[in-house]
Write a structure and sequence with these properties.
Blueprint: H1 2-8, E1 14-18, H2 24-34, E2 38-42, E3 58-62, H3 74-83, E4 87-91, H4 96-99, E5 109-113, H5 114-118, E6 127-131, H6 134-147, H7 156-159, H8 162-181, E7 187-190, H9 200-206, E8 215-219, H10 223-232, E9 237-238, E10 248-251, E11 264-268, H11 274-289, E12 299-301, E13 304-306, E14 338-348, E15 351-360, E16 366-368
Parallel strand pairs: 1-2, 1-3, 3-4, 4-5, 9-10
Antiparallel strand pairs: 5-6, 7-8, 8-11, 10-11, 12-13, 13-16, 14-15
Length: about 400
Amino acid sequence: MSAVLFSQLRQGDTVVLPSDGYHLLHVLRDRITGYGITVRTAPTGGDAQLPLVDGARLLWLETPCNPSLDVCDVRRLASAAHERGALVAVDNTLATPLGQHPLALGADFSLASGTKALSGHGDLLLGYVTCRTPELAAGVRAWRKSVGAVPGPIAHRSLATLQLRVDRQAVTALALARLLLDRPDVTGVRHPGLPQDPAHEVAKREMRHGRYGCVVSFAIPDRAHAQRFLAALRLVSDATSFGGVRSTAERRGRWGGDDVSEGFIRFSVGVKDTADLLADVRQALDAAADGPRRRRGDCKVRGARCACAVARGRPRPGGCAGASLHGRRLRGGGGLARVGPARVAGARGGCTWRARARVAWTQCRLAQPPPSWLCQPRFNAHRTARPRLVDSASVSNHPSDMKLSTYL
């Protein structure tokens, strides 16, 4: 983004930016305004940019836009901009190069975040730009050379699987959007692949081979409802990035800057099995609709509190404040499943303790996170955001997707 904007714009120029695009555009807008550049903004849909192009040096498009997933007619807008002497740049992050070719639609620059679909693993900070002419590319290269933004080779690792990932994500995202349409507690479902979506006709003309992207946006009633939904998901991480192999979802209103409701969710589909992911979303929506669960005696284990029933055992001899739980059970919705002895190790004030518990697991959840020393940092590779109590007796007996790591 910066490479295109700062290599092409000079003091006194005018740029047209999307008002509903990537939220860091707002930060860049303030920066370039300080350099004496005039900024005009317009929403993505409905050709709203057309009246603002006169006298502009650069028209910036983001299609589909993030997070509302609206789409604009790149071919029409690019033609109009060129007639008025403006360059056109398209942020192609959500569509990916496999789903949309902005240069073929008339754009002068096509750019995207390599952090998202290109790398696919959320472990790389990178952006890339393609240009219509060598002269335009030379300006971008000169800017890159002056700021030192030279990428390393790690991005090439993921190119071999890009098509496999994008195709799988597109299929699952469309299936998720269709599921959400049938839910009475979900409103405002947006995905360009839905025939009833306002952007579908334009997307069908400009996005290739049914690759309408991996992101679905929708709204549920309020902030608390959205938080319950995110907490109930088992195969999805609450994270802000998108386009990777892991499915992520977040309540966008927590960041500010986007014109969205408190219950607005941006959901990025990964490469999980479609049926498994849909089942997980369905159960999470059901759990969120049920409201907060009634607590049966807030159990406390060294400061951790859960919304479950658990009997507390006696501390071990020797003055250690750690709990020892014998033959007790954690209860969650949907029945009980016996899990073998679990061990917890921790230290406070120089005292190391170890507790053993025979517990049962079914969707038992934290009302508030335990202290970091209580849980080992990792059980399932794709679910590292929440702490885990690792059950040594049950790890080898159950598939990881069953999430048999036990919450205290």
